[in-house]
Amino acid sequence: MNDSKNKILTPKAKTYPQTTRSFELDKIAVERCKTDFPEYYGFKKALAKESLELADRLQKGLDLFKELKGGGMTLTGEQNARYKAFRNGAMYFINRLTNLAEHVDKVNRGEYEPTPYRPEKKSDNSNQSKTGGND
User: Fold this and answer.
1) d(CA 20, CA 106)
2) pTM (2 decimals)?
3) What is the DSSP secondary-structure string of the chain?
4) CA-CA-CA-CA torsion sign (88, 93, 96, 101)
5) Which of 27, 31, 46 is nearest to 96 (CA)?
6) What is the CA radius of gyration of the chain?
7) Residues 106, 52, 65, 24, CA torsion sign
8) Could you give the CA distance from residue 110 to residue 94 in angstroms, rounded to a whole number?
9) Phi, psi of 51 (to 5 degrees)
10) What gap in Å lies between CA 59 and CA 87, rounded to an integer?
11) Alpha carbon distance 122, 6 (integer Å)
12) CA-CA distance, 19 to 97, in Å (whole number)?
């Protein structure tokens, strides 16, 4: 039997659903601020500026590692695993931070698709206690 057929495929990058959701909630907050509290939208522009600065700092760290590895530096297996973990995490945050900053700019120009709000579904048990059933 071929073991490669039974091997579980894992994504190259983790998805971090809770952190991703936090960024989505930030986008919703940006949209709501622009429509309901436009006089405070400057704070969202500051958020965008901070996000781009953080993304740039992470990118500079990645670039430094690439230069060191490209310059003949040899990493042990453990060091290479740690580098890859850092690289993947940094790339995740660079993407999320840049995406948030771009969203702030699009909302400011009025050229955006509203971020869908997808609240978590409550279990039947939580509804029963609120409605007085099966207590």
Assistant:
1) 19
2) 0.76
3) --HHHHPPP--SS---HHHHHHHHHHHHHHHHHHHH-GGGHHHHHHHHHHHHHHHHHHHHHHHHHHHHHHTTPPPPHHHHHHHHHHHHHHHHHHHHHHHHHHHHHHHHHT--PPPPP-PPPPPHHHHHHHHTTT-
4) negative
5) 27
6) 21
7) negative
8) 24
9) -60, -45
10) 9
11) 35
12) 12
Q: Please count the residues of the chain.
A: 135
Tell me how far apart the alpha carbons of residues 117 and 119 are, in angstroms, rounded to a whole number. Answer: 6
Main-chain dihedrals φ then ψ at residue 116, nearest 5 degrees: -70, 140
pLDDT at 130: 47
Residue type, 12: K
Rounded distance between C-alpha atoms, residue 104 and residue 4, angstroms: 45
Q: pLDDT digit string (tens) for 21-52?
A: 999 999 999 999 999 999 999 999 999 999 99
